[in-house]
Design brief:
The complex is a heterodimer of chains A (622) and B (347).
Chain A lengths: L8 E5 L1 E9 L4 H15 L2 E7 L14 E9 L10 E6 L2 H7 L3 E10 L5 H6 L18 E5 L1 H8 L7 H5 L2 H12 L5 H10 L4 H20 L5 E5 L7 E7 H16 L3 E5 L6 H8 L6 E5 L3 H13 L3 E6 L1 H17 L3 E7 L16 H6 L9 E3 L3 H18 L2 E7 H5 L1 E4 L50 E3 L14 H16 L17 E8 L3 H13 L4 E6 L1 E3 L5 H5 L2 E8 L4 H10 L4 E4 L8 H12 L2
Parallel strand pairs in A: 1-8, 2-5, 5-6, 6-7, 10-11, 10-12, 12-13, 13-15, 14-15, 18-19, 18-21, 21-22
Antiparallel strand pairs in A: 2-4, 3-4, 9-16, 14-20
Chain B lengths: L32 H15 L6 E5 L14 E4 L5 H11 L4 E7 H7 L1 H10 L3 E7 L34 H7 L4 E6 L3 H13 L3 E7 L11 H4 L4 H4 E3 L7 E2 L4 E6 L2 E6 L21 H5 L13 E8 L5 H16 L4 H6 L4 E3 L1
The chains are: A alpha/beta (622), B alpha/beta (347).
Chain lengths: 622, 347
């Protein structure tokens, strides 16, 4: 279809934050992610934050059922989904009530007026039929009430769809309207619909009609007098695609398995927010990927251990409660010294906690959460793209050092998306597992499965390798031979050898690098994981204001980068923002004896840049 | 990309093979495990498969030390989880011969969940379930197969738990090979092991194994010369159910098995229940021949291959799907994967 001609003034903006919100059945996530794709394809830098309830279909119209998708897109670099939104699109009264606090003063509200009838107002908790759209309480904002439901139904009047199916197209009307507002074409949305509803021409047709109706409405309605345009961002040259963190993790695992020349076996049990890794991997069986939906979390990791034992790359992923169940098996993998990658897509805890919300409170669990002396390397991804890089590195460490590795991501970056200048396969390094050398005929010497190389790494002998038969297990083993041993001094030796092997993994890390700021100064902000965007945004602003602030973002949490200790000493103050009560801060204090201060938020929500900035300014006060 | 198998060097014809490892066997003197180990070695020798193509995976318990005593590949894993480890191993290495060693506590208590899923998926593995009706390694607590009233260290007044009927449980989980054997009848055990190894899918053998330290004589009514003929029923495919040295048989009275006297000439062998190991409807009844042998008129306990059925293994399907995906989409192109479906260029 042709995109209608412009009839109104166009104003250029550098960046915009839109928050789409509605019932969890309103298709909000789809509208948001579709608009994101269009923005990214256009060349904007983007960052997103999907925020949805744990219930699949919470009671309609209630605050508990509100699903949101925040999108920040710009002609400038964008590092966070935005502290506040410029535009709030709400499908009902509850969505407005739940999100009004996030709208900046003077911001725009686009409201589906049908979602503000007496019932919806009551469910949202507006008392005495008080209607925010008409009672003047929104005077500080620019409000556009649009009867999305009615107009969508009208647009689809001549289709054969039932009323329910027609109403499901409301989100496309909204997408059309917002596309008009921000000067996006509809081609990308149409292409998406054609693919999503392949084989259902009546649904493709209806959704297209709704999409176009929304666009036309913006163009012709007198409510909207101005269109906006956000030009492409000055991003580094190259080829881009959009990627979420969970996709990044999945692709990183496949790429690494390919680079190692191994099959990828993924054992997992469904859990929010990690399941999308399973879904993504299951689509790529032509890469030799074998996915196994196990009967429980323990079987998930144990099947991965079995696969690694068989000479494949074994991987498992979960979130906090599932990781807790895997703990004993992680100890086994550590004791066996076989490669294994364990991904924890963190969510709010403890126990079931906040399944769909984000948190960084499993760091202690990752670093310390096993019986006995069982140090397992822990690394963390900081952005959706970084999930790819860190998943790749997790595999490198696991295979080249014969150890389980824990990769921490979290719900925020797992579901968030950003543009990715994807690499080429040839630019990714080869991965070389330490396979045992074949034994020659006549070599009667016993194979020593725990004879270590200079890095402390043992050889990997896989069933089928002739004359290398050996037995391994969770019981303490004799140095070199791997035979069962209860010798006191041997046990202490083995505990130390295993720990040294893991400590030496730090030898492979690149020198520590500041993300921004001078190499020494007043304040160093130390971050890890998904707080990256907020800390970077705040640090850059502070530096522009002339403050002595630097930012380092840790990807290696155990063992630490060897340069971290010396770096910390070059600053008078250290601030550690975390979405927990201070876990990295305690590790840093314990390891380096520095007076690290914490900025801690445990609300199931990411930091805003403003929060980080305020804490830094406070700490900078003499 | 190579498969895990391709990193392995090729195998030659078997040498004169001795499957025993260099480790000293450390079960208690007199333990039934010795006899089982011996029969497994015999079967391995008879089959002559190269040692490097054989893997033994065990959980935790006395029996789970088994892999250390064989010069094959082996893993002594953690309590109850051997089925899950086996499942992952088989998915990537379907050409290996895999054996799983477990006990009544390991596979019916802490690992019960994994066992039933192993069976329904029909992973190709020989499962030797050493049942001694007691926790031996932890020194004598009752297990999920201990009879009601069992007096043990943890049940000084007698166990109040109803025990599992392990083979009925396995049938409930749609196992494709179900057998029972005993440590004290090595010849029969050997035959059952050979049948299990020949079956493609999960072959489960419950082996009555005497723990002479903590539960001595638990199965003596089935194993001792004097009582054995009257309490055991050795089933053979296509043969009538006969026991007590040919003087008694089992007949189906409708759905109900009844013992009949063969010595008075009133019942012909043809009237007896003829064992059909492929009969999935009669199998559950056979599994239910599980009376307490101390009771008057108790039905005899069946031994041998009680049920066998051909069904695809999960690993064959997993590998089939990989092959299908390759046929449909071509072998994975990493650059195409990284590029995804929608890209744009800045430059």
């Amino acid at each position: 279809m042709e995109t209608p001609t412009r009839t109104k003034a166009v104003q250029e903006l550098s960046n915009v934050v839109i928050l789409f919100a509605g019932d969890s059945g309103d298709g909000i996530q789809l509208t948001g992610s579709q608009f994101t794709d269009t923005s990214a394809l256009f060349g904007n830098d983007v960052s997103t934050f999907p925020n949805f309830p744990a219930e699949i279909r919470a009671p309609q119209g209630t605050l508990a059922g509100v699903s949101g998708f925040q999108l920040h897109f710009g002609s400038v670099e964008v590092w966070t989904p935005g502290d506040q939104c410029d535009v709030l699109v709400v499908m009902n009264a509850a969505a407005l009530k739940a999100n009004l606090g996030k709208l900046r003063n003077g911001g725009t509200i686009i409201a589906n007026s049908d979602g503000f009838d007496a019932k919806n107002l009551r469910l949202a908790g507006y008392i005495d039929k008080q209607d925010p759209l008409t009672d003047g309480s929104l005077a500080n904002f620019s409000v556009h009430a649009v009867d999305v439901t009615k107009m969508t139904r009208n647009a689809l009047a001549d289709t054969a769809l039932g009323m329910k199916e027609k109403d499901r197209c409301k989100n496309m009307f909204v997408l059309g309207l917002i596309s008009w507002m921000y000067s996006h074409g509809l081609e990308s949305g149409e292409a998406f619909l054609t693919k999503k509803f392949a084989g259902k021409p009546e649904l493709i047709d209806a959704n297209r009609k709704a999409l176009l109706a929304g666009f036309h409405y913006g163009d012709t309605s007198e409510t909207f007098t101005t269109r906006f345009e956000v030009k492409a961002a000055p991003m580094p040259k190259g080829n881009y695609r959009s990627i979420t963190g969970n996709q990044g993790t999945a692709l990183g695992l496949i790429a690494a398995a390919q680079k190692a020349g191994l099959e990828l076996f993924y054992g997992s049990y469904p859990i929010t927010p990690a399941s999308d890794i399973l879904h993504e991997l299951a689509r790529h069986k032509n890469f030799g990927v074998k996915t196994f939906q196990a009967e429980d979390e323990i079987a998930a990791i144990c099947s991965a251990i079995g696969a690694s034992y068989g000479g494949a790359l074994g991987v498992t992923a979960s979130s906090g409660p599932g990781i807790a169940l895997k703990t004993e098996a992680m100890g086994l993998a550590f004791m066996l010294e076989i490669p294994l990658v364990i991904v924890n897509v963190q969510r709010g805890g403890p126990s079931t906690g906040l399944p769909t919300k984000t948190e960084q409170a499993d760091l202690f669990q990752a670093v310390h959460g096993r019986n006995g002396e069982a140090p397992i390397p822990v690394i963390a991804a900081s952005t959706p793209i970084d999930c790819f890089d860190m998943a790749f590195e997790a595999v490198q460490i696991a295979l080249e050092h014969m150890t389980p590795v824990i990769l921490l991501t979290d719900g925020y970056i797992a579901n968030g998306a950003e543009p990715w200048r994807f690499p080429q396969a040839k630019d990714l390094p080869a991965i070389k597992p330490p396979f045992a050398a074949p034994k020659q005929d006549g070599d009667a010497e016993k194979f020593l499965p725990y004879l270590r190389d200079e890095r402390g790494v043992r050889p990997w002998a896989v069933p089928g390798m002739k004359r290398l038969q050996h037995r391994i297990g969770g019981i303490e083993k004799q140095d070199r031979t791997g035979d069962i041993s209860y010798e006191p001094l041997n046990h202490e030796l083995m505990v130390r050898l295993r720990a040294e092997k893991v400590a030496r993994i730090a030898d492979r890390f690149k020198p520590i690098r500041l993300d921004s700021g001078a190499p020494e100064g007043e304040l160093l902000i130390v971050g890890w994981g998904s707080t990256y965007g907020a800390i970077r945004t705040a640090a850059l602003e502070l530096q522009r204001e002339g403050r002595s602030v630097s930012h380092v973002h840790l990807r290696h949490l155990f063992p630490f980068n060897k340069g971290l200790g010396p770096l910390l000493k070059k600053f008078n103050k250290v601030l550690v923002p975390e979405m927990n009560t201070g876990q990295l801060r305690q590790l840093i204090r314990a390891e380096f004896l520095v007076d690290a201060r914490g900025l801690n938020k445990v609300q199931g929500l990411p930091f805003t840049a403003a929060e980080i900035k305020a804490a830094a300014i406070e700490l900078l006060k003499p | 990309m190579t498969t895990a198998n391709e990193v392995i060097n090729g195998s030659n014809a078997p040498e004169k093979l001795d499957y025993a490892s260099d480790q000293e066997v450390r079960w208690c003197p007199g333990c039934g495990d010795y006899s089982i180990l011996k029969q497994v070695e015999t079967v391995l020798k008879e089959k002559g498969r190269p040692k490097e193509e054989i893997v033994f995976i065990s959980g935790i318990g006395c029996s789970s030390r088994f892999p250390y005593y064989l010069d094959t590949y082996g893993m002594h894993s953690i309590h109850g989880r051997a089925p899950a480890i086996v499942s992952g191993l088989r998915a990537v290495r379907p050409e290996l011969s895999v054996w799983m060693i477990t006990g009544d506590g390991d596979s019916l208590s802490i690992g019960g969940n994994h066992l039933i899923h192993l069976l329904r998926r029909n992973v190709d593995v020989n499962v030797l379930l050493f049942n001694n009706e007691i926790y031996g390694l932890t020194k004598g607590q009752y297990s999920p197969t201990s009879p009601e009233g069992a007096v043990t260290k943890s049940t000084p007044m007698g166990s109040v738990d109803h025990p599992f009927n392990p083979l009925a449980l396995c049938k409930g989980a749609d196992a494709t090979f179900i057998a029972r054997a005993m440590d004290r009848d090595p010849k029969h055990l050997r035959e059952v092991l050979l049948a299990a190894d020949a079956h493609r899918g999960t072959s489960l053998i419950e082996i009555y194994q005497n723990c002479n330290v903590f539960n001595d004589g638990a199965f003596e009514v089935f194993t001792e010369k004097a009582s054995k003929p009257f309490h055991t029923l050795f089933v053979e495919h296509g043969k009538p159910l006969v026991f007590a040295n040919g003087t008694k048989g089992v007949k189906l009275d409708g759905m109900k098995p009844v013992v009949v006297d063969l010595s008075d000439g009133t019942t012909a062998l043809d009237d007896l229940w003829i064992h059909d190991q492929h009969d999935g409807f009669k199998a559950p009844i056979l599994m239910r021949l599980f009376d307490d042998p101390r009771l008057e008129g108790a039905l005899p306990r069946p031994f041998g291959v009680l049920y066998m059925h051909e069904r695809h293994t999960v690993e064959s399907k997993i590998n089939e799907q990989v092959a299908q995906a390759v046929a449909r989409k071509g072998k994975g192109d990493l650059d195409a994967l990284l590029r995804g479906e929608r890209t744009w260029t800045i430059g």
